[in-house]
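Homework help board

Subject: predicted structure for assignment chain

Our instructor gave us this sequence and asked us to write out the predicted structure in token form, then describe one feature. I got the tokens but I'm not sure how to describe them. Can anyone check?
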Amino acid sequence: MPHQDLLFDPPEPAAVAPARLDPALTALARQLPAGLRLGTSSWSFPGWTGLVWAGRHDEATLAREGLAAYARHPLLRTVSLDRSYYRPMTAAQFAALAAQVPEDFRFVVKAPALISDGAQRDAGGRPVGLNPAFLDPVLTTEQFVQPVLEGLGAKAGALVIEIGPLPGALKADLPALLQRLARLLDALPALAPQAPEAVIAVEVRDPEWLVPAFRDVLKAAGARYCLGLHPRLPPIEAQLPLLRAMWPGAFVCRWNLNRRHGAHGYEAAKAGYAPFDRLVDPDPATREALARIMRGTAAAGHPVLVTVNNKAEGSAPCSVVELARAVAPA
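My token output:
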């Protein structure tokens, strides 16, 4: 009779090791321009075993120890730090992450909801009024920009202010919103001394923002439009005029959610795509449109930062591989 201990799987080692990948992926990575970086939204997904890491690990272990393994994947040269949206992070927390990645890695960092959400919310996330700190320049500098610059330094790639769906009272006065955004952007400290490649990028969730006046505010401040691929917004083709009007400059994109799920389909996509180990709803049309933008931007010598959510096609690492194939020379 076998020893009782042998009836159970041995525990995984504490350290997270990178997956052993097909050498063709390394060859593919070498075909991409140096300034073009692809990545995912966060990294703590157990279903990525074999795609990003070897062995099985729980979410907490991956959140704590998985970034170094993630950054050893030849195609994963950026990541979106989504956790910074839910609670401001300190410079020390950013520095701890920066220490786990190589020098040419760049972070896409989301601003805290504290300053980017137009609504004040209760413990359950329900709006209970207007947020008095919405787009506050002092708080944005102190709670977001300064900690990012101090902690990440040159590894900061894009500081994204994602302005979520707005309460009707704010959305009804777009000129006032644009003035508030302009005041914020004009007041932020320069990024270049500490992060020469970093940009401020503004992502929105309401299509009412996508007007020439919004473009003018961004251009006047030297900020970029973060292309948000989300069903709340028009499809990528309809956003191209705004991107063209912002030329030249860095291209920042966060591919968030497959359009088939609708504006409120995040949870449905999560349930249908878990454990995020394969493409479930391939979207080659969006990939090819993104690839054209990425190729043109990189060819002109501007940085490209594109991150993909698992809810875009089913598996963010698989989407990254397909995007790289679409960008690489035939």
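Reply (TA_rk): Your tokens look well-formed. For the description, you could write something like this. The chain has 15 helices and ten strands. That's the kind of observation they're looking for.
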